[in-house]
Amino acid sequence: MSTRIGHLGSAALMASGLAAVVMPERVGAALELRPTSPRGQAEVRAGLGGTYAALGAYALVSRSPEARRAVGLTWLGAAAARLGALKADEPDTDWTYWAYLAAEVGLGAGALFAREPSKRSSSSLIAS
Length: 128
What we know:
By secondary structure, the chain is mainly α. The protein is 81% helix and 0% strand. It is globular. The chain starts with a helix and ends with a helix.
């Protein structure tokens, strides 16, 4: 897998975090988390917003393979918890539940298994 897939996972994590920071009510409602108080909105901004935005942004800016792997594990951790919740919580699942799961698995695997370009191919591009 190319690093572009890894960057996509990082960018998506950052974007979802920024969305939660900017519009916690809408993000909370989409996830069926109803932030009904100013404190609830602050927690959505911090927990789902700032955390994800910072991790995704760091992985993009640093271009660190370790940071990209952390992003991948974050997505896959969400997917694992979502699957576990099927038994533990027995949530009502609509198409969005499954779409989130598919995105978590796809973005997580993409970020986790993205290959770094080899130094040999990078230096040969510079030489030509």
